[in-house]
Each structure stands twice: as structure tokens, then as C-alpha cells.
């Protein structure tokens, strides 16, 4: 099975590949016999983790469900591709036992064996820094101490490392005093603490946060950084352990497939892939999609930056539509490189200011005995995908000698069904818009990681919102039995 999403460039030959192997690709693309004759209990729009959770829960409860998905695969902004026997996570990747909704599902499906991304003492066990035009080699502990100090200074907004301002990170607005900090950009907060950080410490925290936020520091909301810090246990080590350390050995697509397959096994799920939604009409007694399908309720899981591409009738509330501009500000890039040999397995790099890359680190060994490096940075517009990949490799290989064999990536910014990576908010956004984004519109419920209360932007946040929407629909429509 293969998906249209993603690209793979062989650097030596220049051969560009699409239709990458993915167990999340669904064949046949539909199981509908006559798409216009049946009225469903629920229509779910979107087959990311929010949509899959809602489909699974509602189908298991015995409701008739129709899943509509614009792509040819499940997973949304998360999918795994296999190239020459090695798995590459093109979007959302890392999981942790401190992500409650995700770990519950991992336990349910037997996915609790985890694979660490990073190891020490393999090959060149050091970090390369490129700060303000100066290239240096830094030992791992030195870089750790610099990063830890910078995070602690940045996030200690109350003398208690943020515990007082954000005591309950799954309820980020719990303390109304947090709004003061929510109005700041990361750049403004850095200006507040500039006397406490050296130039290199300032550069390292901005390089790290460029990977997290996917935008410049003046556009990134400091509140989102503080929220991640709190979710990670108010320590830098906790932020990175929960956010980019452990992944699933068989890949995210195999995990997502468990949700879909369980729903399908109930006999209550119909589906249609390659089916973009352009119109959703709520008539009071039922909801109609694309003037074709009808249901009592609809769960819309479209990402924040895609909501305004669908015509809703009646129109969405002004507060919800206002949130789509600027919406999710994360326009960051994620690239995978296969580089010759294993010397860079424990190596990492951080760069600031950001041109293309801002970070990269060894993330596994391929069957060919080479090193897999995962990189984050900035997206640019290119007339052809191969130019994008070559530009990235040209900039990244300035950091260290390496022979790049392959480049594997998916441009989430250019993806019409994503228009950005995991969700990050700008300053002065969350207190204004989060509640409006979570609110339903009559028979239409909205479920997406982009407005999760807890691990927003993570798989956990997607499962959170999908499960809540399914529970609300189940209570309204009453008990069902298969």
C-alpha cells in the first residue's frame, strides 16, 4: 500500500520518488455501495487521530458512522513511510507514558514497547553549534547545561519555575494571572531575561524553540512554551523526554490502523477516502455533507488552518472564524536524512539564526548500516520538491562532514489538508480563542488536537478531543447495541 503524501529523493541519482509505502493507506478507498441512500447516526470528517478515536468509540457503541477523508490514508498530520526497510515518521512521532490519552490507547493495543530515538557513546558523541555565524563543537554535557539554564530562566515566571502561574497544565487557563504571560511573544520574554543569559545561551534556547514553534520568536507565543514546560514537569529534561525521546517501533501508521480496524470490525463503519469536504449544512434535524451524505450529528476534525476552506451553513460563529486568522503559526519543516556510516548516530546540531535547519540529531540506524538523522527547521517555497530537498541538504551539510544518501520529507505547509505542522499559537490568542474553538455549533462538534486542553499539538491532544466528541454524541443519541 502506498500514499500520495511525502517525497523521497536519492541524492546520488536525483531520482525523486512519490507513492511511498505506508500501512495507513486504505484500499479499497471506499466500502460504500450507494453513497446517497443511507442516513447515518454520525458523520466524521477527517481520519487523523481525533477522527479515528471518534469513529472507533461510536462504532463500538453501535452507532452507524460514516468517515470521510480527503487523503488516501489515515493519520492526518501523522504517518509512517517505509523506505528500503527503514521507518520514517513524517509528522507526529514521539509518545510517552505521561501522555494519558495516548498511553491508554497504547495499552489497549499492545504498543507499550518503546524505541528510544537518542543514544549516547556511538561515534561522534558531541554536538555542533552554529550560532551567529560561528561553528563550534560542544560536548553533550556542556550543551545540556546551557539549554537547561536557558529554559529555567525563560520559564521561571513566578520564582517557582512556573508552578504557580500554570499549576494545572491540562487546564492552562486555571490561573487567570497566566493571561499576563499569554500576551507575550517568546522574543519579548527573552528581552525580559536578557541580562541573565549569555549570547550562546540565548542562541541555544532560540534554536531549540525554533524546532518547537516552527516560526520566528516574535511570532511565537510564550504561553505555548510555558505550557509545554509545565506538561514536561517544569524541567528541561522532562520537556525533551516527553516530547522527542520515545517512538513506536512499528510506526505511528500501524498504531492508527488499530483504531480504524477495530471500528471497521464492528460492521458499523462506512468510509470514503479521497473525498474532500467542501460544504457542511446543518438543517436542524440532520447535517448534510457535500449535498450528498446525511446524519444526525457531525464530528468535524479539520485542522485550524483548514476550517475556512469549508463552507458551513449556517456560518461558523465570528469568534471561531476569527481564530483562523492567524490560526496555527507553525510552518516548520521536518526532514529525514540517511547518511553514510554510523559515526553520527549520537551526534546532534543546533543553529541560530535559522536559515533552513535549526536542529538535527541521530535517530536510528538503517538496514544498510547507515545513520538516520531527523532535522527540523524552516520551510520555504520552491517550484519543485527536489529543489527543496537539495537546498535543505546543502545548508545542513555545512554543519558537519557527511554523505547524504537519501532525503525523505513531507511539506506540511504546502499540504492543502494541513497548512501547517503541529499547532502553536501566537501571543494573545489562547484566552481569546481556545474556548470558542472547542465549542460545538448545534449538531456539529469540533474535535482536533489544535484546540486540545492538555497536550495540544500532540497525538494525545487529538485523542483527547476525539474521545470527548464521541462521548457527547453517544449521550445525546442514546444507547445503541450492535
Automatic annotation (TrEMBL):
This is Uncharacterized protein. It comes from Zarea fungicola. The lineage of its organism: Eukaryota, Fungi, Dikarya, Ascomycota, Pezizomycotina.
Amino acid at each position: 500500500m502506498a500514499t500520495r503524501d511525502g517525497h523521497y529523493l536519492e541524492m546520488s541519482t536525483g531520482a525523486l520518488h512519490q507513492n511511498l509505502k505506508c500501512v495507513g493507506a486504505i484500499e479499497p478507498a471506499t466500502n460504500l455501495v450507494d453513497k446517497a441512500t443511507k442516513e447515518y447516526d454520525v458523520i466524521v470528517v477527517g481520519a487523523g487521530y481525533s477522527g479515528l478515536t471518534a469513529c472507533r468509540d461510536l462504532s463500538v457503541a453501535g452507532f452507524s458512522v460514516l468517515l470521510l477523508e480527503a487523503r488516501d490514508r489515515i493519520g492526518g498530520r501523522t504517518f509512517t513511510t517505509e523506505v528500503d526497510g527503514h521507518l520514517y515518521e513524517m509528522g507526529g512521532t514521539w509518545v510517552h507514558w505521561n501522555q494519558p490519552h495516548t498511553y491508554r490507547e497504547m495499552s489497549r493495543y499492545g504498543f507499550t514497547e518503546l524505541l528510544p530515538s537518542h543514544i549516547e557513546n556511538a561515534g561522534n558523541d558531541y554536538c555542533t553549534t552554529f550560532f551567529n555565524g560561528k561553528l563550534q563543537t560542544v560536548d553533550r554535557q556542556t550543551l545540556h547545561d546551557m539549554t537547561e539554564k536557558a529554559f529555567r530562566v525563560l520559564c521561571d515566571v513566578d520564582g517557582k519555575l512556573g508552578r504557580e502561574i500554570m499549576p494545572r497544565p491540562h487546564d492552562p487557563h486555571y490561573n487567570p494571572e497566566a493571561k499576563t504571560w499569554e500576551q507575550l511573544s517568546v522574543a519579548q520574554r527573552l528581552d525580559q531575561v536578557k541580562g541573565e543569559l549569555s549570547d550562546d545561551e540565548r542562541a541555544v534556547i532560540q534554536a531549540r524553540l525554533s524546532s518547537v514553534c516552527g516560526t520566528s520568536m516574535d511570532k511565537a507565543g510564550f504561553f505555548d512554551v510555558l505550557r509545554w514546560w509545565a506538561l514536561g514537569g517544569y524541567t528541561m529534561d522532562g520537556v525533551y523526554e516527553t516530547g522527542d525521546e520515545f517512538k513506536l517501533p512499528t510506526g505511528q501508521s500501524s498504531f492508527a490502523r488499530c483504531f480504524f480496524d477495530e471500528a471497521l470490525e464492528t460492521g458499523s463503519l462506512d468510509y470514503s477516502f479521497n473525498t474532500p469536504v467542501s460544504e457542511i449544512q446543518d438543517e436542524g434535524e440532520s447535517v448534510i455533507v457535500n449535498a450528498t451524505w446525511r446524519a444526525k450529528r457531525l464530528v468535524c476534525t479539520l485542522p485550524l488552518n483548514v476550517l475556512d476552506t469549508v463552507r458551513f451553513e449556517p456560518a461558523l460563529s465570528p469568534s471561531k472564524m476569527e481564530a483562523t486568522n492567524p490560526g496555527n503559526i507553525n510552518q516548520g519543516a521536518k526532514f529525514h536524512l540517511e547518511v553514510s556510516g554510523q559515526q553520527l548516530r549520537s551526534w546532534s546540531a543546533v543553529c541560530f539564526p535559522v536559515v533552513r535547519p535549526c536542529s538535527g540529531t541521530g535517530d536510528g540506524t538503517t538496514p544498510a548500516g547507515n545513520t538516520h538523522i531527523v532535522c527540523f527547521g524552516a520551510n520555504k517555497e520552491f517550484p519543485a520538491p527536489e529543489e527543496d530537498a537539495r537546498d535543505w541538504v546543502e545548508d545542513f551539510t555545512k554543519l558537519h562532514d557527511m554523505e547524504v544518501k537519501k532525503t525523505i520529507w513531507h511539506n506540511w505547509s504546502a499540504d492543502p489538508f494541513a497548512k501547517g505542522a503541529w499547532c502553536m499559537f501566537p501571543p494573545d490568542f489562547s484566552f481569546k480563542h481556545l474556548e470558542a474553538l472547542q465549542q460545538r455549533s448545534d449538531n456539529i462538534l469540533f474535535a482536533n488536537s489544535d484546540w486540545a486542553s492538555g497536550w495540544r499539538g500532540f497525538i494525545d491532544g487529538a485523542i483527547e478531543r476525539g474521545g470527548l466528541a464521541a462521548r457527547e454524541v453517544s449521550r445525546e443519541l442514546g444507547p445503541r447495541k450492535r
